[in-house]
Amino acid sequence: xxxxxxxxxxxxxxxxxxxxxxxxxxxxxxxxxxxxxxxxxxxxxxxxxxxxxxxxxxxxxxxxxxxxxxxxxxxxxxxxxxxxxxxxxxxxxxxxxxxxxxxxxxxxxxxxxxxxxxxxxxxxxxxxxxxxxxxxxxxxxxxxxxxxxxxxxxxxxxxxxxxxxxxxxxxxxxxxxxxxxxxxxxxxxxxxxxxxxxxxxxxxxxxxxxxxxxxxxxxxxxxxxxxxxxxxxxxxxxxxxxxxxxxxxxxxxxxxxxxxxxxxxxxxxxxxxxxxxxxxxxxxxxxxxxxxxxxxxxxxxxxxxxxxxxxxxxxxxxxxx
Length: 321
What we know:
This protein is mainly alpha-helical. The chain contains twelve helices and no strands.
């Protein structure tokens, strides 16, 4: 997520940016966004982890079917499994991404104040690379919690005991078994997804945002609705483009498999086995869910920056208006 200043295709060197408001705005946007769209993100995770049985059987037939079955089996609060981990870690994740993107854009802007598409892509990619230090453990723990209901349902049908899990117990178990590196399972796939997403999103947003009308004050900033729609459009398009990497990441980070499901030994193995047994369409499982999840997340981020929430809280003059 990104502020108008940090994604604009204008003069990155002519403006300095304050870090603290970006951290606060990023955290607020992340928390609001996660709270609004988390049930859809849970559905996305379960669809991506679902593997087709030997006889073509599936637990979920569609996004709507998954939503209905999950709500029926686990209730309203079951739709928010794993949200606590996301809410806890979303602020540092967004802070790193925002600050890193602004930092790299600032230093990659040429002396005449222009920032080429290739440099915008480089800045976005580097920002995505920086954020995985927080994203990987956050996603790992979130996925276990989100997928726990699916695994429990299959275990119940097979007459097996159902174990209750929590993010804390999973984290402690991983640290005891493998040390801190246990929390970084699937780092390679997470890097592929986040770096490629940022490479697509940031330049696309800047391009779309530059097409709309400017604000009345002549600040060269786009009007609110243009930034909002640009964030939604760029976010959803980038999400669709990188969905195959998200499927691979989700499957690699799922520590518990349903009986009969394939195990994977890295990115290449996961891609090969998924392609062989399920075809190319498997890499776009949950794609619609992910687009629906990402679009409002980025739209909300633009709204938070436009309103200058952090600046108001800190008694500072908003710099993006």
